[in-house]
Amino acid sequence: MRVLITGFNGTLAPYVQRAYAARGDSVSGWDRQAVSPDDAEACAAHLDRVAPDRVIHLAMGAEAWAARLAGWCAEHNAGLVFTSTAMVFADRPDGPHDTSDERTADEDYGRYKTRCEDAVLGASPSAIVARIGWQIGDGRGGNHMFEHLSAEHERNGVLRPSRRWRPACSFMADTADALLGLADRGEPGVFHVDANARACEGRGMTFHEIVESLCRKHALDWRIEPNDEYVRDQRLIDDRVKLPTMSERLLV
Questions:
Q1: Which of 82, 166, 173, 229 is the 20 to 30 Å CA partner of 179?
Q2: Bridge partners for 165 per DSSP
Q3: Which of 241, 86, 221, 205 is nearest to 159 (CA)?
Q4: pTM here?
Q5: pLDDT value at position 252?
């Protein structure tokens, strides 16, 4: 199978690339320097040349690019997975959020991803939209929760996680496996990929619990002062998507 991944230099893409490569698929990345996402003709020519069987669209980019990718995949009977975000939901009404819930984004990023979702699904009835939460890596570097927490502790000498926030989040290796599973299944539509949705017997872990568990997992001496200031249940519910829960991964 030929797999084309956008956002190849991002944080999640290497996990997706490794998951496909491990089973013998041919994986290539979209080089923005060589092929501008804003050039419709160049995009079409590149897709024709690479002729992917599947496109995993992880990159940031204009809604028009997302629509072009989806349209090409629909025309050529190729699979498309577009990663969206839990941020398409604002904190009111509160979660946990089902795939059918109204998207209420009140910040620019969530609104942007909402527009991309519409562009993808409008261009291809067979597309898969996978909403994900805050990703977690196994070490430093990149754009993920553990790096954010580590950098914040280095700056401030303390972390102040809320005991009343239940975030949508997953370890990146598990997210990659879930994206492959969705693509292999081929069922179109919107899906939620969230390891915290069913953690701790269905209540989900709080951000404070996650931070404490990551501190223990990495044997760190973080100074942690919990608070109750941020109140939100951001979890993404979807019984169709199975992945290890946060409590399983963190041995809670």
A1: 166
A2: 232
A3: 221
A4: 0.96
A5: 59
